[in-house]
């Protein structure tokens, strides 16, 4: 039989193929020749044929019929045959092959046939696998003295050895590791530490030197094994501390070889129970990595710092400036890691400087970063804001820069922040007005600006801003901006809704442009946008039919409160007992807010027998500030139908109850029912006078009169009440929300109580108002009703 062609000739022939079909034909022809040679047990050219078969395997053609031939080459006495045989075993065999079982004896044989220094890395690789599968309690040294066969066997076993093979060969490998070779490590930590120390302190070794470092591959593998052994082990970790410090301080960092060892050292230090000083040293190494020109090293350092920042926050903080500089890197992966790490470093001490850098990054970063960066700034500002003005300025800067990328809850959160910052209203509305002049591209910013202009447009026109130089703006200029938002092609439907509502609110803030506002609102009554059309129709009806209610309906929003888990426990109890809130055991009603005020009002009488204020009309969609009372009481189960009232306010929307400006319906006090003082505290006095209905004797009409004996007016006054379930209560609108000082005037409000069972009347009241620049709130219980009022 003629000699088969050499591997070089086969490669040259295959490369001359012009089509894939021609290449397949060449491969099939050569495979047929190789099969024939295998059948004839041609030992002379077996090595050559297996080498060609491996090349075909690399090209993607089947070569499984050469597996047994690989075993025959491994059993050969020639090193060249063994080299090709082991290479074929690694490429053609895996732990699922039956031939795999035949490898055990061959490898066991050659583990002791010769010893070679070059096989150390392979032995360590294998030993990792053996140690994990068998949990060998002791690890011995291995002293390789001669050539390469052992390295081939160990390499093959490490690459394709199954758990069963490793179990069968564990004894042989353990014995091999117990030999006197100084490069091999036993599993026990002290011996590993000594070996690693010898590697560091030893001189130049040409056989294992890489870029001036002695056997870096062995050092890396030892460090990885130390990391495994020292995890959750105090004694082992303590034994490693000194050698890890030596490796960290004595390793050269000018070459990647040294950086690889240092990185493994850092991972080991962070994974074991190391000393605090050693952890600081590891973080400083990562900080030096951030200054490296290699992008991969910088990325690895940022990722490692991000994992350790929670446990070693102060040590990472020392490298804050270097981390921030990475935000300017051209590599997007490094930018993202630097951004995540920067947010993790923000705290109350550095929030101003860090937010400045992150806002600068937000201005210049790619679009894919803006959403995550904006969300991170929002969270950090909410948690660490040094002042409300800084908080508002920061959020506005984000909306101006990346408004289109912010979360959906950014707008309501900022509105709540602005509402609760009473002293910042004039400053905020002026800043927002300037921000949207001629630019409506950032829709969340336009929505917040429209809402603020609607709420505080009078402050904008009056120029009452002490924080910065006020702008001179007229009512018509403000309306021009809002109308521009309405007609802009960039405005979404939600934004137009904000703008139309703002224009409607300005009808109570402005005095000279009410007719213009009416005209604008009437125009949008025929809008093709159903939402805008519905709002405009409702606002037109408010102008035409309920104009007397408009000032109260469109008054400013009260201070908003967030939901708190311990709200009810903070209520001041007049009876000295702790009462639990009913809402804690009930699911929230769909679409309604359940703030701490709701818990307050539900606790007015204690227990579950609470009947809230009954609205004077069927519920409808909230549109203004009056929604607070409906939100407070909307989750209650009412036991009866509302008491009818012949007042003009019967058709008013129930979500606007706290701001109506009607006069008391009953002015004549029935003879024989004495008045009482229900509340008198801090200069505020509440008197109740009574009248019985002529048409229904079960209805008691209570007229409250609130007076103020202090030297300053009480503003934003709100009176709320609740009675037991056996009663039904209807609270009409007050005559005003301001109680004049020095008893120069009063607020009157009518309460109608239905008492069909003629039980003794009890009532809890809640009073909220602003006085001397502070928000005041108090609860009281009224039990001294005269018998004539309920019998």
Automatic annotation (TrEMBL):
GO biological processes: intracellular protein transport; vesicle-mediated transport
Claim: Cell membrane is one of the keywords in the record: no
Keywords: Cytoplasmic vesicle, Golgi apparatus, Membrane, Protein transport, Transport
Cellular compartments annotated: Cytoplasmic vesicle membrane; Endomembrane system; Golgi apparatus
PROSITE patterns: GAE (PS50180)
Record bears the keyword Protein transport: yes
Domain GAE: 671-786
GO cellular component: AP-1 adaptor complex
SMART domains: Alpha_adaptinC2
Annotated Gene3D superfamilies: 2.60.40.1230, Leucine-rich Repeat Variant
Principal location: membrane
Bilayer topology annotation: Peripheral membrane protein
InterPro entries documented for this protein: Adaptor_Complx_Large_Subunit, AP1_complex_gsu, ARM-like, ARM-type_fold, Clathrin/coatomer_adapt-like_N, Clathrin_a/b/g-adaptin_app_Ig, Clathrin_app_Ig-like_sf, GAE_dom
Family affiliation: Belongs to the adaptor complexes large subunit family.
Protein name: AP-1 complex subunit gamma
Organism: Callipepla squamata (Scaled quail)
């Amino acid at each position: 039989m003629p000699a088969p062609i050499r591997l070089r000739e086969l490669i040259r022939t295959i490369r001359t193929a012009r089509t894939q079909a021609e290449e397949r034909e060449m491969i099939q022809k050569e495979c047929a020749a190789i099969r024939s040679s295998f059948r004839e047990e041609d030992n002379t050219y077996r090595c050559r044929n297996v080498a060609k078969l491996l090349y075909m395997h690399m090209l993607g053609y089947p070569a499984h019929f050469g597996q047994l031939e690989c075993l025959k080459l491994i059993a050969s006495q020639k090193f060249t045959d063994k080299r090709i045989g082991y290479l074929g075993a690694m490429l053609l065999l895996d732990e699922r092959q039956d031939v795999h079982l035949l490898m055990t004896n061959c490898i066991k044989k050659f583990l002791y046939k010769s010893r070679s220094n070059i096989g150390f890395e392979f032995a360590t690789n294998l030993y990792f696998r053996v140690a994990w599968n068998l949990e060998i309690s002791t690890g011995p040294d291995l002293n390789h003295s001669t050539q390469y066969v052992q390295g081939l066997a160990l390499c093959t076993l490490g690459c394709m050895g199954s758990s069963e093979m490793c179990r069968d060969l564990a004894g042989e490998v353990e014995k091999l590791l117990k030999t006197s070779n100084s490069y091999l490590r036993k599993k026990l930590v002290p011996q590993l530490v000594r070996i690693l120390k010898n590697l560091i302190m030893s001189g130049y070794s040409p056989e294992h030197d890489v870029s001036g470092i002695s056997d870096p591959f062995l050092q890396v593998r030892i460090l990885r094994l130390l990391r495994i052994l020292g995890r959750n082990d105090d004694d082992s970790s303590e034994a490693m501390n000194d050698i890890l410090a030596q490796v960290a301080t004595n390793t050269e960092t000018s070459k990647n070889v040294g950086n690889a060892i240092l990185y493994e050292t850092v991972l080991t230090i962070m994974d074991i129970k190391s000393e605090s000083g050693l952890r600081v040293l590891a973080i400083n190494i990562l900080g030096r990595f951030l200054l490296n020109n290699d992008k991969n090293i910088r990325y690895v350092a940022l990722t490692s710092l991000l994992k350790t920042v929670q446990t070693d926050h102060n040590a990472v903080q020392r490298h804050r400036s270097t981390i921030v500089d990475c935000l300017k890197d051209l590599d997007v992966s490094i930018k993202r890691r630097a951004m995540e790490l920067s947010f993790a470093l923000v705290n109350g001490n550095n929030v101003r400087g860090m937010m400045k850098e992150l806002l600068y990054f937000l201005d210049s970063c790619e679009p894919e970063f803006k959403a995550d960066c904006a969300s991170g700034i929002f969270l950090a500002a909410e948690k660490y804001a040094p002042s409300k003005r800084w908080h508002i300025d920061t959020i506005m800067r984000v909306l101006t820069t990346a408004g289109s990328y912010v979360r959906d809850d950014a707008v309501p959160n900022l509105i709540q922040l602005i509402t609760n910052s009473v002293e910042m209203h004039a400053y905020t509305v002026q800043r927002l007005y300037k921000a949207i002049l001629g630019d409506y591209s950032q829709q969340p910013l336009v929505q917040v600006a429209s809402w603020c202009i609607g709420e505080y447009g009078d402050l904008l026109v009056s120029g009452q801003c002490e924080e910065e130089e006020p702008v001179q703006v007229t009512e018509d200029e403000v309306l021009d901006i809002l109308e521009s938002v309405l007609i802009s092609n960039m405005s979404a439907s939600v934004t137009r809704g904000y703008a139309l509502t703002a224009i409607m609110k300005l009808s109570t803030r402005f005095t000279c442009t009410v007719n213009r506002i009416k005209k604008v609102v009437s125009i949008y009554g025929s809008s093709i946008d159903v939402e805008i059309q519905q709002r405009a129709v409702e606002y037109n009806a408010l102008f035409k039919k309920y104009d007397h209610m408009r000032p109260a309906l469109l008054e400013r929003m009260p201070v908003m409160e967030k939901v708190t888990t311990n709200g009810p426990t903070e209520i001041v109890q007049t009876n000295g007992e702790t009462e639990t809130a009913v809402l804690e055991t009930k699911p929230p009603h769909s679409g309604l807010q359940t703030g701490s005020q709701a818990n307050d009002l539900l606790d007015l009488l204690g227990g579950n027998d609470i009947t809230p204020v009954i609205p004077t009309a069927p519920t409808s969609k909230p549109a203004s500030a009056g929604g607070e009372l409906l939100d407070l009481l909307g989750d209650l189960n009412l036991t009866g139908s509302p008491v009818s009232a012949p007042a003009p306010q019967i058709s008013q929307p129930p979500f606007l109850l706290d701001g109506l400006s009607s006069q008391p319906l009953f002015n004549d006090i029935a003879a024989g029912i004495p008045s009482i003082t229900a509340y008198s505290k801090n200069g505020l006095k509440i008197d109740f006078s009574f009248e019985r209905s002529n048409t229904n004797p079960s209805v008691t009409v209570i007229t409250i009169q609130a007076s103020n004996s202090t030297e300053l007016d009480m503003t934003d006054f709100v009176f709320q009440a609740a009675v037991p379930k056996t009663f039904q209560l209807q609270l009409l609108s007050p005559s005003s929300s301001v109680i004049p000082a020095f008893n120069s005037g009063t607020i009157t409000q009518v309460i109608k109580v239905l008492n069909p069972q003629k039980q003794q009347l009890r009532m809890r009241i809640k009073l909220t108002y602003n006085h001397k620049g502070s928000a005041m709130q108090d609860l009281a219980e009224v039990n001294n009703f005269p018998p004539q009022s309920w019998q």
